[in-house]
## 1
Amino acid sequence: MLFIYASMCGIIGYVGNKSAVQILLDGLTRLEYRGYDSAGIATIDNGQFRVLRKVGRVENLINAANQRNIGGYIGIGHTRWATHGVVSEKNAHPHCSVHGLFSIVHNGVIENYESTKEFLLSRGFTFESETDSEVLANLIEYHFNKEQDSENKFLKSVQKALFHVRGTYGLAVLCEDYPGEMIVARKSSPILLGIGSGEMFVASDASAIVQHTRDIVYLNDREIARLTPLDFSITTLHNENVDVVKCELDWHVEDANREGYEHYMLKEIFEQPRALENAMRGRFSDDLSTAKFGGLRMTTRELRQVDRLLFCACGTAWIACLVAEYLIEKYARIPVEVEYASEFRYRNSPLDKNTLVFVISQSGETLDTMAALQEAKRKGFRTLAITNVVGSTIARESDGGIYQHSGPEIGVASTKAFTAQICIAAMLALYLGRMRDMSFEEGILFVKALDDLPGIIERVLAQSEKIEKIAEKYAQCDDMLFLGRQAMFPIALEGALKLKEISYMHSEGYPAAEMKHGPIALISEKCPCFFLATQGHILAKNIANIQEVRSRHARVIAVAAEGSELVDKFVDDLILVPDVHPALQPIVATIPVQLFAYYIAKFRGCDIDKPRNLAKSVTVE
Ligand code: M6R
């Protein structure tokens, strides 16, 4: 049987005194970066469900909604990223129960859907889609039919259905018999409530509702909430009381707009000076010789006991971990290991007892990173998280951490979050280094270099037109290699990842010298090489590698530091960047590779903010 999981998607809900449709459609537009295979809404209009679903972009849904007059002051919406099976209208959310009494939007995976479906089939229920979410809608209706009439009948039937299911869910449910009420629940898939005046919002991610309210309550796992226009209540699934913690979003709706940029990715690339300032704000000691972090919840004495660090993450955040490894080992002299979160969670690697575990996640919701964090906690390790999204699951589950304060990152390709993560890694290297062998003078120089960084990044961004022209020359290639040594090796990986994810050009990142041990076989006039060669002390080594690929007819683009103008005679295209403190070179060198990937994707006509097959936050294994 074909089974379609519903996950990694966006959810929005509204109950209040305004027409729901526009709020839902606006919310879905903002959530589209979470998934763009199909989208749908359901409202209760004069006591009856109105459901509209469309395959493809939210725009299709908006066009369809504009041709109908869908009323209602309560509604739910969903944008889907398919993990298994076909994308079709039938499989789009919201899903209704068989007698049309319930409508549901669901993120997550119901693992025992098959047995549940068989059970429901045997009791006369029928199914229109192959989704697990429709099974859940019908299970709620099954329990509703058995429940005694009471004020809490809707809530109780959702609770009973959730007792029965195994798996994960972030969900919002409407019931035609309760047209002023919405039930939402969460287990391992984010759900938050937005508190308005005479209205309540629900979303899987704050960007969907920030234009309406910045007062937020995050649901915890196994909590269920009931919302009416004027009120909300939260309990655990077992009816235990919950201490409701309200928080205020630390960013505004303008932060989630494109503000005249053609793409979010470009806007976010250009936001990096400000994002770096935000990552550093208030995080230097009074004598400006070291960094400080309020959220680590560890004393200097405890930090000095740490013998080893383990960093876990996925994707670009994993690449930031690799940079952290270079920086912390160099400046703090603490051994660092880096693991893919998805590998760590099942690998059972032996860890020294004084290991401190860091996870890095922009969204704070990546499932594998979350699972790695939980595994480290299960083993009794202290865990710290570097995350961008305040109140995200990973931020809440870790023992302490550091917020990036990068503002919302909407472009699927991570840019400003990455450089902020490296900036925090550099500050950690400084902080841990100053507890060990780094001198006061070195600390002062390090802080000064960090302080100068936003201005330096502005200077690199000012070269965007030049980088665009270079990109045009290479835009139609099929392959590209990114090469760099030491801390530039992760930036080579990041360059290759950016390029492949948004332009679909095959690209690989390698340590420059390692290229001789295999990848050199790929090199020809059709496979240009992009060198990241900003380090003065190994410039000659990089030039030697450049000559090796040139003699095999590769065209070469290089990023080098000002003062290394001699590189020009060995390469086809040279991008000079300011010569900065070695710890900050990875950040400076990242800007040209981001812009290069962006412009290549643009010349190739790609959908830059919504690259095919990708989703911003990966909440499945
Ligand atoms: O939200 P996270 O930082 O945990 O996301 C991790 C990766 O999924 C993410 O970095 C992904 O690789 C980006 N698309 C890269 O641009």
## 2
Amino acid sequence: MKKHLLSLMASLACILPSQAQVKVSVHESQPGAVIPAEIYGQFSEHLGRCIYDGIWVGPGSDIPNVDGYRTDVLEALRTLKVPVLRWPGGCFADDYHWRDGIGPREKRPKMVNSNWGGTVEDNSFGTHEFLNFCELLGTEPYICGNVGSGTVEELAKWVEYMTAADGSQAELRAANGRKEPWKVKYLGIGNETWGCGGNMTPEYYADIYKRYNTFARDYSGNRLYRIASGANNDDYNWTRVLMDRARWDMNAVSFHYYSVPEWYNKGQATVFTEEDYHTLLRKAVAVEGLIQNHIAVMDAYDPEKKVALFLDEWGTWYDVEPGTNPGHLFQQNTLRDAMVAALSLNIFHKYTERLKMANIAQVVNVLQAMILTQGKEMVLTPTYHVFRMYNVHQNATYIPLEYEADGLMSLSASRDDAGTLHLSLVNPSLTDTVTLEFSFDALRPCAVSGEILTARDVSAYNDFGKAPAVAPAPFKGSKLSGGQLRVTLPAASIVVLTL
Ligand code: AHR
């Protein structure tokens, strides 16, 4: 009988929620690097309904718009504080010929978007529409140039068209309605050149990179920040060859990493088991090892850290929503995706001496989107809320934390110019509440406030025509006393605190 009782208690201990206690030392007296705002970058591709429907509806649309851009999406993105927007791809970039996307819209040639569902692309959203959108949004444009199927001359002239104050391309731009050149900071020389961007070897691409880069000039005071198309996941040899052969000619090298359940059986965004949940989160946090290893390769060639590492595509990737075009990569977004976003951002904060940009894929209606649209309706995803809550970290100084915790719990801190400390706390456990006891080097916080993102279920999501199931709420679980902070972090929650 006694034996039975013991084993019953043992199994109950596994099932019943527990309350772990974690002590956290905040080392505000040992500040780290500034967290570049660009860690919160976004990506917009001519893919599915990202550009058309998502951002651009055209000036004649009955969907409320500002010069053709959806008003609701524009405002939601302004609130997000998007620091940089990558365009026009992705794989699409290496099929894109910019001259098809300028001049009167009704005269622009149509093309088939062979990468993404064979959809007809009418080029009504082109260079002017993109760069004007960036100005409206107050974001830095990141142009990804066509190296796979475009010529050196084509990329050279595109840069001139966008940024030169004088000359034939400036005249053409003015004839198309824009006298002043735009400021364009970021230029990607190709995308995934190991794959959809041309199936090249790193040795071949290193030479190609230098050739295209040579003729992409700096005009009229505009200085390009030049990005080499980088590795797929853990292809460290790719990074090594580029650093070895082209580091003098580039400002950054990128790499891409997606959190995918399994490439040939991705599963649905909203239907998953507890095991699927943990497996996916483990895949998401595996990005830390990749960042460390790419950095180690770069450090060997560039100890002064002159070349930056960019993660210019990341996020979750599932099967498309039933009934939608498989080539359009439209997926829902649950609290599980919010966890992936929050855990990933906390990781990125740690490596910003080298990691200077990260662009989540993609901004609207594609993969791990911030926003979903359907006709006139717009939905803010759980991932949007993480990016909005976390934007306090943009341009703030990283503050190291010391703690020991089981599982995937993750904490991060930064301090802004006004001296305000922000903590982002992620408890992915589905059962366990965590009590956090923070102590500080010398800081004596006098007030604390915060927001929490959680839901009844990690598979909860926000849907059209329904009240939001996942939305931030004021957080009541923190208390200051005697210079110490005590936080009760519920299971499956993301909290951002302001001190
Ligand atoms: O984001 C979707 C696609 O994923 C991009 O076009 C490509 O670069 C990557 O493989």
